[in-house]
Amino acid sequence: MSKIYYKSSEEIELIRESSLLVSKTLAEVAKIIKAGVTTKSLDDLAYTFISDHGAVPAFLNYNGFPNSLCISPNEQVVHGFPNEYVIQEGDLISVDCGVILNKFFGDSAYTFSIGEVSAEKQKLVDVTQQCLSLAIEKAVVGSRIGDVGFAVQDHAEKNGFGVVKELVGHGVGVKLHEKPEVPNYGKRGSGLML
Predict the structure, then answer these.
(1) pTM for the predicted model, two decimal places
(2) Which residue range(s) make up the domain with 75?
(3) pLDDT tens digits, residue range 100-152?
(4) Which of 97, 116, 135 is the endpoint of a domain?
(5) What gap in Å lies between CA 87 and CA 105, rounded to an integer?
(6) Which end of the chain is more exposed for a tag (fewer CB within 10 A), N or C?
(7) Does residue 1 have a pLDDT over 50?
(8) Secondary structure letter of residue 56 according to DSSP
(9) Same domain, yes or no, for 24 and 73?
(10) Are residues 84 and 146 in the same domain?
(11) Worst-scoring range by mean pLDDT, 37-46, 69-78, 110-119?
(12) Is the pLDDT of residue 163 over 50?
């Protein structure tokens, strides 16, 4: 089993800088994402923006992945390949972005609602945001990973949704995927103590 590597305050600051560039990249994507735009054009924008800021797209060539962003329309859960898909009114588009800046990784995703979305899609977005807020509330010193996952799963299921159990949240640092893993499900009081 891999170890959790504790970071110095300097390393945490470098991760913060990488993560800030991820946030800025997603903000640039937000400026142009709309119906009629291809997912490939979003990827091209991100590549240029990240490179212009002295960083490297973390996903590009990672395990053979050929793009800078993972872009997943609608029902596609995650890790979609940007291509000539033309974004449509009513789509939900998940954009996952990672960067390497000063040897440290940042990684985050955001889901964009394109124009008017169906009531069902809007409910999914709202409940997912609520789940994230509940997870953040639980991610405090003394809680356990299971408490975080339980909060997400419980709220999602109470609202008629399930959670993806095959994929997890994760730490970042000098690697893209570091421990701890943070699943979207769990049992209260179980797992690593935060």
Answers:
(1) 0.93
(2) 7-116
(3) 999 999 999 999 999 999 999 999 999 999 999 999 999 999 999 999 999 99
(4) 116
(5) 29
(6) N
(7) no
(8) E
(9) yes
(10) no
(11) 69-78
(12) yes
2 occurs within a structural domain: no
Q: Quickly count: other Cβ atoms within 10 Å of residue 16's Cβ.
A: 12
Domains of the chain: total: 2
One domain for residues 81 and 155 = no
Q: Are 125 and 114 in contact (CB under 8 A)?
A: no
Task: Tell me, yes or no, whether 97 and 126 share the same domain.
Answer: no
Nearest-angstrom CA–CA distance, 154 and 193? 20
Question: Is 1 part of any domain?
Answer: no
Q: How many CB atoms lie within 10 A of CB 159?
A: 14
Helix (H, G, I), strand (E, B) or coil at 49: helix
Tokens standing for residue 21: 């560039």
Gyration radius of the chain's alpha carbons: 17
| Token representation of residue 52 | 């212009």
114 and 32 Cβ atoms separated by less than 8 Å: no
Q: Do 57 and 43 touch, CB atoms closer than 8 A? A: no
- d(C-alpha 129, C-alpha 123), whole Å: 10
* Helix axes 39-52 and 9-32, enclosed angle (nearest 10): 140
Structure tokens at 37: 């735009």
